[in-house]
Specification:
- The structure is a single chain.
- With 84 residues, the chain is mostly helical.
- It is 75% helix and 0% strand.
- The protein has helices spanning 4-10, 13-46, 50-71.
- The longest helix is centred in the middle third of the chain and has 34 residues, at 13-46.
- The radius of gyration is 18 Å and the shape is elongated.
Length: 84
């Protein structure tokens, strides 16, 4: 079975572009929710409601890790040297 990168390189360019668009959409969604969580946590921390702040900080950290994990599925740049 071929790994993800090999099958992606063999795929039709439209499929690769669709995949890249979907991944970028997910990253934008995750970062938007993460910012929303951080603002909610900051607002509650300023009001001294730390139980909710801890939950939103945890959710924000999980989204940051998920975003980093999803980044590895972005296609290789077109100008990348195939020999090196």
């Amino acid at each position: 079975m071929a790994d993800f990168r090999e099958s992606q390189n063999k795929a039709h360019p439209n499929k690769t572009n669709t995949l890249m668009t979907g991944i970028i959409f997910l990253l934008i969604l995750f970062v938007s929710i993460q910012i929303w969580f951080l603002f909610g946590a900051l607002n509650n921390a300023l009001q001294e409601n730390f139980s909710f702040a801890l939950t939103t900080f945890t959710g924000s950290a999980i989204l940051a890790l998920a975003s980093g994990w999803i980044l590895r599925y972005l296609p290789d740049p077109i100008r990348r040297d195939k020999e090196g």
